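S.,

Sequence below, as promised.
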Amino acid sequence: MNLIDEIENVFLLSDEAEKENIIGKIGDLFECENLDRNEVIEGVNLLLSHVVHEKNGSLKESMLYSVNNAIVYKNVAGDVLLDVLLPYYSSFEEEDLSYVLSFFGFSGDRKYLAILKSYLNHSNIEIQEAAQEAITEIEFRSSKKK
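The prediction came back faster than expected:
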């Protein structure tokens, strides 16, 4: 079974623990396996389209962790559809929000700077730090493009 079929099929399962287990394995694949870049991008886009509607906090965190692995280890943040997160980012729990802010940073896209700057004075220091790191990452990546 290919990666995309596996991701699509995981959302058809009713057992939440099995879903989480499979998504964790997909995150491991993103980290360790030599995968086709287009397949990784498509897989991340599928996960992102589902994560915004996921109610199970543990499953949501597992999905974000898998996306994070793809972004960090396969360097696909600039090619995935992070804008799907825009209507929802402010509703993420704090532990999940730091992932989203990091994703914005790894994209290198300056359009996310205003969102990131709005979190520099957040009540949670970890969110402040994630926002600052993401801003630094955007500035670094955008300076490399020049």
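The two ends are 41 Å apart (CA to CA).

Coffee later?
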